[in-house]
Amino acid sequence: MDNLKQAHIEDARGSILVIDDSPEIIGIITSLLGHDYQIKTASSGELALQMLASGPMPDIILLDILMPEMDGYEVCRRLKANLLTRDIPVIFLSTMQDDSDIEKCFAVGAVDYLNKPIHGVVMLSRVKTHYNLNLVANFAKDKNQFLVIEVAKRAKELEFIQDVTILAMASLAETRDNETGNHLRRTQHYVLALAEQLRHHPKFSLVLTRPNIELIFKSAPLHDIGKVGIPDAILLKPGKLTAVEFELMKTHAALGYIAIENAEKTIGRSAPFLKFAKEITGSHHEKWDGSGYPEGLAGEDIPISARLMALADVYDALVSARPYKKPMSHEDSAKIIIEHSGQHFDPDIVNAFISLQDKFKAIAHQFSDNQIYGYAD
């Protein structure tokens, strides 16, 4: 029991590595500091570096300058070049007292300099000061690392909650619609492809940053959540809608926007992904020439995220089968998209689509629901 108690006491003490080729100096330092610190010794710089490579790190290093083979300056340089040892305080010991010699000690990374012969009170005071400073520095570093880890953990949790919220909202709309879940995946990836293609375009680069593209990609499946407010008789009607029914169907864009906005007001705050969710939900049926709905926005007044979604949504509607229509080929669908450049769609986004036609076909095939022309497995 006494041995265990003694070991615990020793573990609680700070540790000092003394690097000196003089057994006499090592003996003096050990007698001075051994009561308060665990003392380890090395008779050469090379031996000290080997010990540090394989053993626990000391809290402080006392380092002689004049040693054979490798002097203290070189030892200190190597310590400071090593990620594992660079933060250990080094106090030089030497009989050299020229200002240039002392300056060189600090230049290679030392925190202090002690003259030989050793003055016991001075050594005890200097070692204690640097030991305590090192404790504070290590505490601050550990605390910062802990905070970084905790912030990253919380960010992951928030991202997970965000993703679950989007998925739940999108799935809710999907359960009431006659469109498939693969429609959501296809349009999501069409939007991503267009955004990546345009992110360096001068008209789009300020909005289409990498973080924003990720948020737009995640928010895209919410584009039709307002359909939960449309009566089944209209939403699930197998035939073409009447003019009155179509007017009611058109309200889904505003309903989706209002639902997200009301949620923000209830919570009392917004979030970047909700901003894009509102844009996409509320404005993806707006048209470049101002003839769309619900607000009749035109040109660049339409949010970029909604302009991307507009083309993605129409393309997927054209190439997909519906209860009231057969699917169109990619070629015929692309022709319609191109013909409506400057009318329904932003011309720059249409140009991006033209460059991405093979990508669009690949996405349609990857997320096929076996109802898309030319994409069934």
How would you explain this protein's 3D organization?
There is one protein chain. The protein has two domains: 2-147, 3-Layer(aba) Sandwich (Rossmann fold), CATH 3.40.50; 177-366, Hypothetical protein af1432. Helices cover 59% and strands 7% of the residues. It has helices at 2-12, 23-33, 45-54, 72-81, 99-107, 120-176, 181-198, 210-219, 232-235, 243-267, 272-283, 304-319, 330-339, 347-355, 357-366; strands spanning 14-19, 37-42, 60-64, 90-94, 112-115. The longest helix has 57 residues, at 120-176. Residues 4-10 and 371-377 have low confidence and may be disordered.
Mean pLDDT: 87
Count of extended strands: 5
Q: What is the straight-line distance between the termini?
A: 74 Å
Low-confidence stretches: 4-10, 371-377
Total of domains? 2
Number of helices: 15
Find the CATH superfamily of the largest domain. Answer: Hypothetical protein af1432
- Could you tell me the strand content as a percent range? 5-15%
Characterize the overall form: elongated
Structural class: alpha/beta
